[in-house]
């Protein structure tokens, strides 16, 4: 992924964070600048606020914005 693509992905994830009640682990990993395996490890350890629906992890946008210091 080149720098332009990385910026586009970050902007897409920020838009999801602003407009959706929850975000995916993939989006949260991009926003927190961690790898996807690290994000899943945090979810499984309970270190990241989340809701599990079946096999799907959902991260509450409001909590993630709070963690990142982003106004809602």
| Helix fraction by DSSP (H/I, runs of at least 4) | 55-70%
Largest sheet: 3 strands, antiparallel
Termini gap? 29 Å
Mean pLDDT: 96
* Number of E-state strands: 3
- List segments where confidence is low: pLDDT < 50 over at least 5 consecutive residues: none
Radius of gyration: 12 Å
Q: Could you say how many structural domains there are in total? A: 1
Strand order of the largest sheet: 1-3-2
Named at the architecture level, the CATH assignment is Orthogonal Bundle
Q: Give the structural class.
A: alpha+beta
The coarse overall form would be globular
CATH class: Mainly Alpha
Strand content: 5-15%
Order of helices and strands: HEHHEEH
Write down the CATH topology.
Arc Repressor Mutant, subunit A
Number of helices: 4
Q: What is the topology?
A:
Elements: H1 3-19, E1 22-23, H2 25-32, H3 36-45, E2 51-53, E3 56-60, H4 61-68
Antiparallel strand pairs: 1-3, 2-3
